[in-house]
Amino acid sequence: MRPWIIWATGLLAYIVAVLDRTTLGVSGLPAAERFAAGPGLLSTFVVLQVVVYAGAQVPAGLLLDRYGSRALILAGATLMATGQLVLAVTTSLPLAIAARAVVGLGDAMTFISVLRLVPRWFPARQVPLVTQLTGICGQLGQVLSAVPFLALLSGSGWTPAYTSAAALGALVLVLVAALVKNAPDGVAVSAQTLGVRETLASVKTVWLRPGTRLGFFTHMGTQFSVTVFALMWGVPYLTVAQGLSATAAGTLLTISVVAAIGAGLVIGVLTGRFPHRRSRLVLWIIASNAAIWTVVLALPHRAPVWLLVVLIVVISVGGPGSMVGFDFARTFNPSHTLGTAQGMVNMGGFLASLVLMQMMGVILQATGGLSFESFRWAWTLQYAVWALAVTGILITRRKARRLLAQQDDRMLLEGING
């Protein structure tokens, strides 16, 4: 029972991190009014948070390998609560941007730290499924931002909504400090201190493992579309370009979470039972994302609501699909560098997301602001990311399979010689 309590506490920290990550996505229009920011500047506002998040992944992974999950989850919760509290009270755009950067830094520490708890507390056969549950249940934070946070923002205003988000972060601090432990008693946890040169060499070694890069491109190709939709341009696209109400847009984002949870359970079981077919599953997820976007963007008019529901359901599968990337990292990396490897994998989707969010803002600004036609042009940038990700998956998959074959041959020879 104790492993589930510790995991659930870490999961709560991740849920609040997702809430903090997505609050600006559902409050984009009020943020534009509060800080007098146009589409281009508003996208920069969010992109900076993602830049910090992605850029901090490898340092966070190194710190995770050194200090463990508990310390990093506590630090992340402190940073995010502080950033949300500053956002609640300020009307200064520079200060608000800095606060979002602080939120991004705290967010960067949380997810991989919670993931690191899973192989420490659960048997190997349960790790793929619990990893999937971590990712998909964490998206309940998006429900919190799309429904109660948005309702509080609409009914009570900016300051009460963001203050409430900060209060949740404070609650996480208390619970994590009281309940979370890095590993069971008697399980050794590495605490070695490396110099700068050794640290850089370790980072290079982890990156050069083909399984790490396979995880990176897996995360990139599956996760970015739904991330950009949830973090930045989904609500404006649904309300302005597709003509839905804010309430309907929030409902669709809730459907996204439900779809991700259902898909994650299936993907967790499949990856556990058929580990050698994981990359095929990833490629099918990417293909389905590209196909549904092609159908929606090819329409010369607003899409019917049922098609928008299908769009959101399909791209939402990319969220749990990206978790397969962490499974690749776990397969090809020893436990003492797993935090670094998971940080590298987590960079994939968020690097793609931040580039896409920024470039979409530029295109929307250049084509006259938020409109149906400008969004059609902006969303087509996704195809370049999918092409890059698929190419990377195919190349690194071949190298990873070759490495596994060599390891199998070596074990066979050792068995014969022994």
TrEMBL record:
Pfam families recorded: MFS_1
Alphabetized UniProt keyword annotations: Cell membrane, Membrane, Transmembrane, Transmembrane helix, Transport
Molecular function terms, GO-annotated: transmembrane transporter activity
One Gene Ontology cellular component annotation held by this UniProt entry: plasma membrane
Bilayer topology: Multi-pass membrane protein
Subcellular compartments: Cell membrane
Domain Major facilitator superfamily (MFS) profile: 6-401
TM regions (residue ranges): 41-64, 71-91, 97-118, 130-153, 159-180, 214-235, 247-269, 281-299, 305-329, 350-371, 377-396
PROSITE patterns reported for this sequence: MFS
InterPro entries, alphabetized: MFS, MFS_dom, MFS_trans_sf, MFS_Transporters
Record-given protein name: MFS transporter
Species in which this protein is naturally found: Mycolicibacterium obuense
Upper classification of the organism: Bacteria, Bacillati, Actinomycetota, Actinomycetes, Mycobacteriales
